């Protein structure tokens, strides 16, 4: 479908509010850096009585403040391509971003009653569910119906993460696995396409057993954790998911990717998701219980953080009419995210490992903001609306 956007109407809107990817990619990147610097201060023993900083806040902000915001920005933008209906923009987009920002400030400032940011964030996800779900229903794009339950799950998880103290760790894990499942769905669609297109290769046909197995294993892992089945069941689904992803990525021409940073960064990040699957299987099966935290950070930093950096870099260029070529220092940014993941997986819990992981993350996303702030705040270079 070709989206129909009124040019005069679009050009009357400031560029940053013309497509969801613009404010959410920029805001999430900046907030991830701020949140991690504050968290490092907490680890160093800084006294911050005015701030509501702790383990729950840290995990919440990286999952809901960072990752879920990028998911909304990406899906809100992709919805225009998928359905042919213009993405949320202007007043709707400002309201959506405003709810996200209110939640960030409310959770951070200790003086704000917790129910206020909880309400703001739940409203953010419910409004996203309405905006995205309505477009899918209107065009009967059933393949993309996953966006509606995903947004509703984010709303429920984000609220319960603060309001159900006894279950905060498991709720955070469910949220992490939900984001991971989404990137497995999206990554399975776009990474082989981007790889084949960049290197003029013939994309290999998808193996139905691998694709369906991926979806079933990801859903099984998510549900088994959510309802509290024994960890051995979690381990089974994590192991099966990891094996299926090895088969999946082996068909994405992994030996031909190294000349293009915007391709190798996607694939290496995906490999870190696979590493997380195998480490989680070891931890949850009690073979190596100490690997649970490294496994979860393989998902969170290497998989989610790395894939987000690579995807936002590419999407920001493509949707602003620019050539799909990584800016000069962005390969360094992609490598920094890989190093951040490896430091957190294999170097922490040594304090220097935590510091190295956070510094590397900040370098990666600071480079993104350096190059992409003008891209996101300026009109498309080809003159088209969007």
Automatic annotation (TrEMBL):
Keywords: Membrane, Transmembrane, Transmembrane helix. The keyword Membrane applies. The chain crosses the membrane at residues 24-42, 62-82, 94-116, 145-164, 170-195, 262-284, 296-317, 329-347, 353-372. InterPro entries: NnrS. This is NnrS family protein. It comes from Microbulbifer okhotskensis.
């Amino acid at each position: 479908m070709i989206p129909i956007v009124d040019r005069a109407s679009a050009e009357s809107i400031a560029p940053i509010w013309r497509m969801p990817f613009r404010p959410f990619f920029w805001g999430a990147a900046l907030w991830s850096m701020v949140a991690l610097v504050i968290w490092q201060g907490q680890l160093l023993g800084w006294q911050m009585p005015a701030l509501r900083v702790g383990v729950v806040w840290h995990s919440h902000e990286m999952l809901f403040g960072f990752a879920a915001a990028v998911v909304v920005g990406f899906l809100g933008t992709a919805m225009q391509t998928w359905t042919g209906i213009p993405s949320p923009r202007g007043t709707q987009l400002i309201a959506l971003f405003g709810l996200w920002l209110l939640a960030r400030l409310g959770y951070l400032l200790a003086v704000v009653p917790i129910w206020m940011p909880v309400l703001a964030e739940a409203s953010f996800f419910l409004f996203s569910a309405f905006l995205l779900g309505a477009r899918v229903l209107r065009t009967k794009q059933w393949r993309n119906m996953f966006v509606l339950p995903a947004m509703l799950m984010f709303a429920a998880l984000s609220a319960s993460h603060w309001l159900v103290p006894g279950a905060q760790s498991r709720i955070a894990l469910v949220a992490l696995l939900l984001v991971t499942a989404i990137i497995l769905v999206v990554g399975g669609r776009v990474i082989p396409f981007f790889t084949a297109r960049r290197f003029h290769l013939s994309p290999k046909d998808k193996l139905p057993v691998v694709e369906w197995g991926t979806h079933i294993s990801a859903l099984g892992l998510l549900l088994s954790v959510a309802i509290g089945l024994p960890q051995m069941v979690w381990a089974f689904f994590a192991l099966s998911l990891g094996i299926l992803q090895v088969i999946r990525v082996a068909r994405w021409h992994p030996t031909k990717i190294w000349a293009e940073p915007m391709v190798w960064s996607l694939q290496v990040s995906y490999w870190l998701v696979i590493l997380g699957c195998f480490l989680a299987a070891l931890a949850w099966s009690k073979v190596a219980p100490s690997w649970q935290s490294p496994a979860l950070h393989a998902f969170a930093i290497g998989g989610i953080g790395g894939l987000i950096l690579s995807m936002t870099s590419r999407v920001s260029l493509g949707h602003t009419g620019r050539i799909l070529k990584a800016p000069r220092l962005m390969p360094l940014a992609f490598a920094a995210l890989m190093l951040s993941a490896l430091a957190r997986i294999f170097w922490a819990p040594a304090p220097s490992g935590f510091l190295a992981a956070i510094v590397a993350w900040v370098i990666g996303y600071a480079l993104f903001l350096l190059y992409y702030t003008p891209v996101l705040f300026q009109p498309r270079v080809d003159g088209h609306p969007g």
